[in-house]
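User: My advisor asked me to double-check a structure prediction for Porin before group meeting. I don't want to rely on an old file, so could you generate it fresh from this sequence?
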Amino acid sequence: MKKTLIASAVAAAALSTSAFAMDPATELAEKLDSMPTIYGNVQIVATYADVKSKTVQGAPERGMSDYGMADNGSTLGFKHSHEVAPGLTAFAKIEFEYSATEKQDANQGGGGGLGETDEAYLGLKGDFGSVWVGTNDTIYETWVEDVTDHYEYFGVVGEAEANFGNKEDRTVEYVTPSMGGFQLGAAYQMNGQGDNQAATKTRDNLIVGAKYSLDALTLALVYGNNEADNTPGAKGAYGFSAAYEMDAFKVGFSYETQEDYWSTASLLGVYTMGANQFALSYAMGEEDGTGRKGEVSTITVQALHNMSDNFYVYTEAQIGESEKISGGDYEASGSQAVLGATYVF
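Assistant: Sure, here is a fresh prediction for Porin from the sequence you gave:
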């Protein structure tokens, strides 16, 4: 009897060990799956600019040309996601900027390593869509501005982009899933009254938008109320974009307007041929306010070559002119060019 009981106990123990023990390879795989993804890039450009300007009517024109080397937005980031319930996934991301061309030494007056936060947020996604909170590119940027803001170094107009409806920090954002090609989105920036001198209303910012995609065509319309803009008399801004992709060709158009301030329009064409990419765009901006009738226009070109999945080089050039900015007699014209390289990991 005792031998039978002992044998049964040994067999049960052996069965328990074989059923519940995890082999080292499986255990290592699960640990790796729980680790965040580390990613980033190193971006460096050589720059050249030749600009002529005149600040007072009748004054002699001044010229300036210069060259240099600069970082072009190098970043280091971490991201992770996991399923918290069937059909429900939690995710988080944080991304820092740093300089690849300036020594970041705190003892020498530098930033001491990683610079400002570019993105940092957490959220949930499922059949209901995606919702996240923190600091992130909003639908104003991704659905409107990014359609023609294609270049590695240059902005298509630049003069007024930061003054439109895109506010990124302290933001709660929600985007629906695609419903027959339609998507809706909203972003709410929480500021409170803060240092608003009038103290009569909050400075919270609201962005709402809609996007529709049908085959190769995508259309989007986004509105930002600009309550967080400290510019006196700042009003809401509208952004519209249209993009069409067909095989190797892509055409994009974007239009942004803020009443009594600025309006811009941009048209972009991109052609991809194997590992090479070529782009051309024209953009114009116009001030629209009391005493402000300035104008800006730019033509930008790009040639980019992917040397591998992780490394590409490019050259970009832009010519442009501006006049009567903010109601003055200021005029400027010139050209710029860059030669850049990016390594992505």
